[in-house]
């Protein structure tokens, strides 16, 4: 199959390499059949919001990556109204921009509002590159729940779930759609594209996105394997490995997400691999309100999608569409995403029918395996080998000696 392209991964390098890092993160990606990933501009320090900080990223990645790696740049209040700075960042090779509509949890990556996003889109239009948005708007009414005493037991998942209701996602999407109109044919930002990352709410938020697509807005949406594999009902008290934002919702929502994916209303999948050190996951404490939000998953997205998708009758062709073709298009990777003459030979060899237990004995290549929400699961779909541009980078538990992945810059 074509190698997977993960358009949403946080490898935290430079600056927080103890959370993940380029060597461990790309080794895990290769072991999971991912041949290209586009690294997010935050959780590393400093955040990737300028040509200088992009340079640090590229330096950190070079000679230490086992798969191809590209970069998103950050759209933040500091650069949003500075077209010259944004153009410099895009000229330097970021594949597009990423912004947050709520606090990101990272001090040097502040949130943006619709005005910043409108300004960003108008610059992106010239480059025909996308803006990816973390679409949640913190509402004042509910935010008191996020304070220390929570309004419930902080070890109980339902306490956390209530702090980030679907209305947060809906409010963000509603606001985004006031500016995505600009991307329509003939509009002031024609050529720009808006991509909603990690959708969790399969109800109103998704309905709004569907309607915008029908109206001709240039908009796509991804969801992540953890929203398709888990439901709120089954998350044990204190098990903060499952904390992420937006949160994993109830089983009925999960069912709706699968239906939307099967119907083509959700365009693609990404890992949103967002690990940290075990100490910040507060695994002993189990405090959902204080623990770091983010799921560690990059090595297992292929078997997870395949295993949990059996019930819905997913096909290999759908896997390729969700994990290779459409992500390649979003990231402007025209020589990737399909096995075709002239393309890079980015290939994963795997056995869909082979099952394995993801226990402590299973080789894990992420830096902090204990925080992964998938430990303890039985999955089907074993990756045998991964090739990046024809180079064998992973085979049956072993990696190539040389880290021969390339940094990929947009031109
Ligand atoms: N700072 C983060 O990496 N946040 C991430 N955290 C999640 N998803 O829980 C994200 O993508 O929003
Ligand atoms: Zn996010
Ligand atoms: Zn993320």
From TrEMBL:
One record GO biological process: allantoin catabolic process
Quaternary structure annotation from Swiss-Prot or TrEMBL: Homotetramer.
Coiled-coil annotated spans: none
Hydrolase in keyword set: yes
GO MF: allantoinase activity; cobalt ion binding; zinc ion binding
Function: Catalyzes the conversion of allantoin (5-ureidohydantoin) to allantoate by hydrolytic cleavage of the five-member hydantoin ring. Catalyzes the first step of the ureide allantoin degradation followed by the sequential activity of AAH, UGLYAH and UAH which allows a complete purine breakdown without the intermediate generation of urea.
Record-annotated Amidohydrolase-related domain positions: 1-393
Cofactor(s) needed for function: Zn(2+)
Alphabetized Gene3D superfamilies for the sequence: Metal-dependent hydrolases, Urease, subunit C, domain 1
Statement: the UniProt record of this protein carries the keyword Coiled coil: no
Pfam families the record matches: Amidohydro_1 (PF01979)
Family in the record: Belongs to the metallo-dependent hydrolases superfamily. Allantoinase family.
Domain of life: Eukaryota
One Gene Ontology term, aspect cellular component: cytoplasm
Reactions mediated catalytically: (S)-allantoin + H2O = allantoate + H(+)
Protein known as: allantoinase
Pathway per the UniProt entry: Nitrogen metabolism; (S)-allantoin degradation; allantoate from (S)-allantoin: step 1/1
UniProtKB keywords: Hydrolase, Metal-binding, Zinc
Cross-referenced PANTHER family: ALLANTOINASE (PTHR43668:SF2)
EC number of this enzyme: 3.5.2.5
InterPro entries for the chain: Allantoinase, Amidohydro-rel, DHOase/Allantoinase_Hydrolase, Metal-dep_hydrolase_composite, Metal_Hydrolase
């Amino acid at each position: 199959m074509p190698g997977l392209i993960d358009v949403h991964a946080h490898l935290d390098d430079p600056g927080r390499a103890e959370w993940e890092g380029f060597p461990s993160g790309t080794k895990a990606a290769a072991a999971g059949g991912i041949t290209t990933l586009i690294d997010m501009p935050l959780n590393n320090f400093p955040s990737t919001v300028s040509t200088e900080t992009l340079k640090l990223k590229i330096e950190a990645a070079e000679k230490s990556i086992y798969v191809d790696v590209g970069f998103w740049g950050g759209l933040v209040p500091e650069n949003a109204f500075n077209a010259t700075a944004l153009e410099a960042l895009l000229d330097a090779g970021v594949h597009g921009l990423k912004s947050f509509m709520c606090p990101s949890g990272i001090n040097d990556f502040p949130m943006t509002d619709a005005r910043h996003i409108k300004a960003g889109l108008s610059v992106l239009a010239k480059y025909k590159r996308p803006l990816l948005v973390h679409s949640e708007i913190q509402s004042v009414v509910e935010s008191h729940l996020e304070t220390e005493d929570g309004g419930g037991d902080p070890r109980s998942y339902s306490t956390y779930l209530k702090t980030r209701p679907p209305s947060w996602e809906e409010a963000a999407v509603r606001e985004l759609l006031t500016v995505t109109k600009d991307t329509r044919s003939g509009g002031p930002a024609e050529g720009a594209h808006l991509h909603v990352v990690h959708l969790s709410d399969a109800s109103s938020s998704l309905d709004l996105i569907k309607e915008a697509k029908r109206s001709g807005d240039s908009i796509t949406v991804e969801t992540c394997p953890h929203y398709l594999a888990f439901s709120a009902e089954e998350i044990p008290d204190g098990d903060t490995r499952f904390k992420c934002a937006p949160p994993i919702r109830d089983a009925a929502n999960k069912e709706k997400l699968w239906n939307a994916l099967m119907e083509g209303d959700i365009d693609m999948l990404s890992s949103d691999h967002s690990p940290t050190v075990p100490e910040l996951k507060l695994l002993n404490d189990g405090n959902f309100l204080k623990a770091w939000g983010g799921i560690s998953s990059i090595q297992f997205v292929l078997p997870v999608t395949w295993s949990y998708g059996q019930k819905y009758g997913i096909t290999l062709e759908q896997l390729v569409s969700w994990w290779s073709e459409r992500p390649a298009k979003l990231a402007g990777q025209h020589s990737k995403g399909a096995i075709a003459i002239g393309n890079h030979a980015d290939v994963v060899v795997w056995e869909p029918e082979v099952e394995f237990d993801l226990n402590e004995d299973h080789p894990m290549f992420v830096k902090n395996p204990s925080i992964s929400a998938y430990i303890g699961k039985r999955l089907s779909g074993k990756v045998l080998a991964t090739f990046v541009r024809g180079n064998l980078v992973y085979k049956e538990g072993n990696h190539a000696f040389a880290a021969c992945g390339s940094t990929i810059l947009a031109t």
